[in-house]
Specification:
Blueprint lengths: L6 H32 L21 E2 L9 H13 L5 E4 H6 L3 E2 L6 E9 L2 H10 L6 E11 L3 E2 L19 H9 L3 E4 L5 E3 L4 E4 L9 H14 L17 H19 L3
Parallel strand pairs: 1-2, 7-9
Antiparallel strand pairs: 2-5, 3-6, 4-5, 8-9
GO molecular function: single-stranded DNA binding
Pfam families: ArdcN (PF08401), MPTase-PolyVal (PF18818)
Protein name: Antirestriction protein ArdC
Length: about 260
Amino acid sequence: MRKTTSRRARCEGAEPNRDEGRASLYDEVTARIVSELEAGRFPWVQPWGRTGGTGPGLPRNALTARSYSGVNVLILWGAVIEHGWSSQSWLTFRQAQDAGGCVRKGEHGVTVVYADRFTPEAEKERAAREGGDPKAVPFLKRFTVFNVAQCEGLRAGLASDPAPLPEREIVPVAEEVIAASGVDFRIGGDRAFYVRSEDFVQVPPQPAFYEQINYYRTCLHELTHATGHPARLARDLTNGFGSKDYAREELVALSGQSAPLATLQ
């Protein structure tokens, strides 16, 4: 005999799919943030950008001027840092067209999310009939947005040039500490790190830092990692990200940057 499925059964069967969709989106956002951490990018604390990049203002919609909020701030900050874009302004594909331009061919957008609640009309009617408050239903939607740097032909006023980076402010005492460390100290790129196997430190150029003093904080942080080299204090620097030993080493580096910098304020 042919089986029939009631409307209620079909709806009940669809519920797990909606939950799975929400869970999948949550997992996707979480995975993206974790990947930023594992890549060494901390957009909410990283005190520098790429040369020609933008400062750490809140991401906003270029058409409505509304700032993004919640987890979207972290997602969009991470994208700006990763690609070195010169703007914190974003548009959907359609908004780019409404603004008189378009997204360049081959560009890939960034997924952001919108969470809210709504009350179905049937639920409002039930509450009015039976009494009590109507129950709101949570929902989560995803949108793809593009940085204005990925667009062309936009009308004037949407995409402004970034403010020029400040000139380098030299702190002689800090420069003496760097020189006296004896560590191979390299300047360039858009990452700060210490390479134990080759015993060298590399940091971005000072003009890339939004606040000049953070250049020296970063220098001393990485130089403190270098004190763990076998030829110096021989700390174990092979610990993996997220481990207790990794956290301990980061505390050592934070201590190494904090005390000297306190004398420079």
